[in-house]
Write a structure and sequence with these properties.
- By secondary structure, this protein is mainly alpha-helical.
- Helix 1 packs parallel to helix 5 and helix 3 packs antiparallel against helix 5.
- The two termini are about 100 Å apart.
- It has twelve helices and two strands; from the N terminus they run H-H-H-H-H-H-H-H-H-H-H-E-E-H.
- Belongs to the KAR5 family.
């Protein structure tokens, strides 16, 4: 029941209270502690098949069937609950804290609680792993959707911007065509004005020439009537010229006024189109900037969530490794204890055997200790294994060179083999040195003893002194006989 409650609490953290959403680590820590306390109480009760008793103040963590139904009253009967279903009773915070203190009071209680607490970390993280993975995938899915929307908006904005550029280009071409048309019209008006002025000028020159010639002719003939006619004709011509000049001036002023109005209208339209284009473009750019900022915020939040998930996974991995190491150490404690006991018993037995051997024969005990030490050294260095592999090495001698065999040997084997070779080589050398030393000593004694050295023996041992200082042998023998008689008497 405690395990299922822990798995549900860890799995349904998204539907937990507000405190759990704000501080999920603290909430899960409380859930793990409650699970560890319930599991520790359950283990302690199961370890006592007869007269089982929970730790002090921990009765509130023992499930029972009577806690599953609501308590009855005088107008409502208590609901009947199946005996197969068990529930934990409702308890207060003070009772729960007292139970935790009781679990910390003894080593046995604390060991059960701490082991259950370590298991709770692994179980909760295992139940949260799938949910964290789904949340991770959901974040990436949302990020993909947001990026898809951003790409769509950017494409739409790009298309609208391109259409706006095409409109601007079309407006520019229209303005250029209008300006060119106005220039052509202005050139036509100017050409017409020039032709009109030239025609009037030619007409005026023709009239003046004819009038002057007629006037000269009239002066020559002194005809007053002809002069009056000429004057009338000149007045009429001047009137016509004034009328035509006024009409021409009015026509030119009308054309210039129309040209000015059309130019102002075109400039106004072009200005409004430019302002509208800039307004639309600024709106598009603001929308694109807002979309990019939203995308950056979503990406930052997604990356922060991914980093937090990665950190939690790393923390879970390190905690799992520590827990595995702790379990491995705890599982190795019985084997280590048995090994220590066996080694201790073997050491005591070996010391006892050597003590008995020392009592019986010291030399035998010394030889036995040396043989055991040598055998242990050879076993530790792997010489016995190497000796056991000699037959297979001999069969493979033809396919392998001696140098390859030496290379395959371990450093322990090489060091032990070198020590054995030196020891085996040192033994005959020592024996030879002893033999040569004995020969030299004997020869020197025989050659020099008659000259000034003599050997003597007393209670202190055997030695060599000058012949003049050696004690008398007869006196030493008399003293030995006297002491022998005194002992027998």
């Amino acid at each position: 029941m405690a395990a299922s409650h822990l798995m549900n609490e860890c799995r349904l953290l998204e539907h937990a209270p507000d405190f759990a959403r704000v501080r999920p680590e603290a909430y899960l820590d409380n859930v793990k502690t409650e699970y560890a306390a319930k599991l520790a109480v359950c283990e302690l009760l199961s370890a006592q098949p007869v007269n089982s008793a929970a730790p002090p103040h921990c009765d509130v963590l023992i499930p029972a069937a009577r806690h599953c139904g609501k308590s009855g009253s005088w107008w409502h009967a208590q609901a009947v609950v199946s005996s197969d279903k068990q529930c934990y009773p409702t308890f207060k915070e003070r009772q729960y804290i007292q139970c935790l203190k009781s679990l910390q009071s003894t080593p046995q209680y604390w060991t059960s609680f701490s082991n259950a607490r370590q298991n709770a970390v692994v179980m909760c993280q295992a139940s949260r792993d799938a949910i964290e993975r789904e949340n991770h995938l959901e974040v990436f899915k949302n990020l993909t959707q947001v990026l898809g929307g951003v790409i769509t908006n950017m494409q739409k904005t790009n298309e609208e911007y391109e259409s706006l550029i095409r409109q601007q280009r079309r407006h520019s071409e229209e303005v250029r065509d209008t300006h060119q048309q106005l220039n052509e019209e202005l050139q036509a008006v100017r050409a017409k004005a020039v032709s009109t002025v030239e025609a009037m000028d030619s007409k005026f020159h023709t009239f003046m020439e004819s009038s002057i010639s007629d006037f000269i002719t009239a002066l020559g003939t002194s005809q007053s009537k002809e002069m009056d006619k000429i004057r009338e004709r000149m007045q009429e011509f001047s009137q016509d010229l004034i009328v035509e000049s006024s009409q021409l001036a009015k026509y030119f002023s009308d054309q210039l006024q129309q040209y000015h109005e059309r130019t102002l209208a075109n400039l106004q339209v072009n200005h409004e189109a430019q302002v509208h284009s800039y307004t639309v473009l600024s709106g598009y750019m603001a929308t694109a900037q807002k979309t990019m900022n939203t995308t950056n915020d979503v990406a930052d939040r997604s990356l922060s969530k991914v980093d937090s998930i990665a950190q939690r996974l790393d923390l879970f991995e390190s905690q799992t490794e520590h827990i595995a190491e702790g379990f491995a150490f705890l599982s190795a404690i019985p084997a280590l204890f048995r090994l220590i006991v066996r080694r201790f018993v073997a050491t005591i037995g070996t010391a006892f055997i050597f003590a008995i051997l020392c009592r019986l024969n010291t030399r035998l005990a010394t030889y036995t200790a040396g043989a055991c030490s040598s055998a242990f050294l050879l076993h530790t260095s792997g010489v016995f294994d190497w000796l056991a592999a000699i037959p297979s090495s001999i069969t493979n001698m033809q396919s392998q060179s001696p140098l390859a065999i030496l290379i395959t040997m371990s450093s322990w084997n090489k060091g032990t083999g070198l020590v054995l070779l030196l020891w085996l080589a040192a033994y005959p050398v020592c024996r030879l040195n002893i033999y040569l030393g004995t020969l030299v000593t004997t020869a020197a004694r025989r050659l020099l003893a008659h000259l000034w050295l003599s050997e003597y023996t007393n209670d202190g041992g055997t030695g060599y002194l000058p012949s003049i200082e050696v004690p008398a042998i007869t006196q030493r023998k008399d003293e030995k006989h006297t002491s022998y008689r005194q002992l027998h008497n």
